[in-house]
Amino acid sequence: DWNSGNVIADQVERIRAQIGSGRVLCGLSGGVDSAVAAALVHKAVGDQLVCVFVDHGLLRAGEREQVEKDYVASTGVRLVTVDARERFLTALAGVTDPEQKRKIIGREFIRTFEAAQAELVAEFAAEGDPIRFLVQGTLYPDVVESGGGSGTANIKSHHNVGGLPEDLQFELVEPLRTLFKDEVRAIGRELGLPEEIVARHPFPGPGLGIRIVGEVTEERLETLRAADLIVRTELTAAGLDAEIWQCPVVLLADVRSVGVQGDGRSYGHPIVLRPVSSEDAMTADWTRLPYEWLARVSNRITNEVAGVNRVVLDVTSKPPGTIEWE
Ligand code: XMP
C-alpha cells in the first residue's frame, strides 16, 4: 500500500543512515526530480546539504531564474550557481552523434561538480568537513532504460546513470531510485513544494543539447529557446499543461526545406512538436492537441523565430519512438 508519507519517513531514515554527519552536494536541474530529491535530503540532513545549479547553457528560457528565485524561496536551501556555458559548448563543438552528446554532457556535468566540490571543500576546510556525497534524482525508469534493471538492454544512456565517469569521487545518494514520476510528484506535494515546481513537465538532464538534431551551437540554441518558449507559453495560456506529460520541441538543424515567407523564398529549418501523453515515460502516445492550438503555435513560430520556416507534428507513439529525438 503506497503512501507518500511512509516513503518520506523511510527515505529520511535511509538518507540519515547513509550520510551520517557528512556533507552532501546536490545538483539542481530545474526539474521536479532533482528538486524533490534535494528537498528530501534537506529534510533529512538540513544544512549538511549544499545545492549546486549548473548553467550548462542547454537550458530553456527563464529556467535559471526559476531555480535561483522560486526554488530557493520555497525551500531555504543553500544554492551555488556555476556558469559553465562556455565549457559545455566547447566540449560539444563538432559533435552530432546522440550517444556521444549524452556522454559528453554527462561527463562535463560531473566534472563541473568536481570543480564546484573542490571550491566548496576549500571553503569548508576550516570545519574539516569535506563533501563526500552526491544526490542524484534518478528514477526507476532511468535505471531500467540504462540497463540497471532486470535484464533490460541499454536503450539510451541517461546522463544521470550511464554517463558517469569511472573516476567519480562521490558516493551517490539516490532517494528516488525506486519511484515513478507520479510518485515523485506526490512526495513533492507532501513535502510542501510549490505546485509550479511539482507539476512541472519533465525535462532531460542533457537539456536542449539532445533536442537539436545536429551540432549544438549558441545560435541554434537561441533558435530552439525561442520556439520552445512560444510552445510553453501557448500550452499554459490554453490551459493544456495538465493534458500532456511533456512536449519536447526539437530543432532539425541539419534539415532545411524551401518555403515562401514575406518577400520571397526561404530555406530554413523545421521545428518538431512532440506532445506526449504518458503515465511513467516508459510508454507514451502522441497527444491529440486541438487543431486551432497547433495552427496558432505554427503561425507564431514561423513568424517570430528567425531561420524556422516549417513546423511539424510528431505522431509516433512510444514504442517505437522514444519521447526525445536523441
Ligand atoms: P525517452 O526519450 O527515453 O525519454 O522516451 C523518457 C523520459 O526521460 C526523459 N529523459 C531524460 N531525463 N536524463 C534525464 O534526466 C536524460 O538523459 C534523459 N533522456 C530522456 C525524457 O524527457 C522523458 O521524460
Largest sheet: 5 strands, parallel
Give the oligomer, counting copies of the same chain as homo and different chains as hetero. Answer: single chain
Strand order of the largest sheet: 3-2-1-4-5
Indicate the low-confidence ranges by residue numbers. Answer: 149-154, 161-166
Strand content: 15-25%
How many structural units, i.e. domains?
Answer: 2
How would you briefly describe this protein structure?
With 326 residues, this protein is of the alpha/beta class. Helices cover 40% and strands 17% of the residues. It has 2 domains: 4-198, Rossmann fold; 211-313, 2-Layer Sandwich (GMP Synthetase, Chain A, domain 3), CATH 3.30.300.
Spell out the key features of this protein:
326 residues; alpha/beta; Rossmann fold; GMP Synthetase, Chain A, domain 3; 2 domains; 5-stranded parallel β-sheet; 5-stranded mixed β-sheet; 10 helices; globular; binds xanthosine-5'-monophosphate
Verbal overview:
This protein is an alpha/beta fold. It folds into two domains: 4-198, 3-Layer(aba) Sandwich (Rossmann fold), CATH 3.40.50; 211-313, GMP Synthetase, Chain A, domain 3. The protein contains ten helices and twelve strands. α9 (218-237) links the parallel β6 and β7. The chain is globular. Xanthosine-5'-monophosphate is lined by residues 102, 145, 156, 158-160, 202, 204-206, 246, 281, 318, 322-324.
